[in-house]
Amino acid sequence: MPDPRQFRDLPPDEKRLIGRSLQELQREFHGTFDDETIEHFVVDSYERLAAKAKVKTFIGVLAERFARQRLQAMAQIESSVPGKPGVLFLCVHNAGRSQMAAGWLRTIAGDRVNVYTGGSEPGAELNPMVVDAMAEAGVDIHEEFPKPWTDEIVRAVDIVIAMGCGDVCPIYPGKRYVDWDLDDPEGKDVSAVRVIRDEIRGRVEALMTTLGVASSVE
After folding, report:
1. What pLDDT sits at residue 56?
2. Is the pLDDT of residue 9 over 90?
3. Which of 24, 141, 148, 204 is deepest in the core (most CB within 10 A)?
4. Between 12-28 and 35-50, two packed helices, what is the crossing angle to 10 degrees?
5. Looking at the chain, which residues constitute the CATH 3.40.50.2300 domain(s)?
6. d(C-alpha 157, C-alpha 134), whole Å
7. Looking at 38, 91, 115, 193, which residue is catalytic?
8. What CATH number has the domain spanning 1-83?
9. pLDDT tens for residues 50-99?
10. Does residue 165 carry a catalytic annotation?
11. Which of these is catalytic: 62, 162, 169, 182?
């Protein structure tokens, strides 16, 4: 991965978009990472998301969230204390299947599992039919956003679950890989998306059994 530009090298409008996020994360991770490392992750996260964004109004907020996830993953990698199990859901656009799976796992497992998503070719936005179908089931994913997989997140998790990204999915030694053969909800009507949604829930519940994690849902 090429080094991103430094914050000081960004145009003034881009500095305004992410300046506050940079300061917030430097406060949040003070004592864990130095300011230069945090700057690297913020600028790189911003540039990765901006490359696909149709509208940059909220790109600063999304870059902060993405950079925070990546920094948390790095902290887990560098920690000598065993943490919660981690799962990464991967698909092509990170706009449908992987987001549904993550929504289900976060809802059913609560904070017992670290949950990440990524795409080999991230889309510009979530599939609205997927968002609606999940909302029908009581799972709100409308604030999620497509993002690429990153090295530190793959390294931080225990299981990588791939859904159609094929040979471009990242392969790291020592990781457990699982392929979920699922229909892509892109272009399908809501009734078809509901079927995919419900199949994903069943797979997530089986995954939790594998992880030894109890449900937080009554």
Report:
1. 73
2. no
3. 204
4. 130
5. 84-218
6. 25
7. 91
8. 1.10.8.1060
9. 988 776 778 999 999 999 999 999 999 998 777 799 999 999 999 999 99
10. yes
11. 169
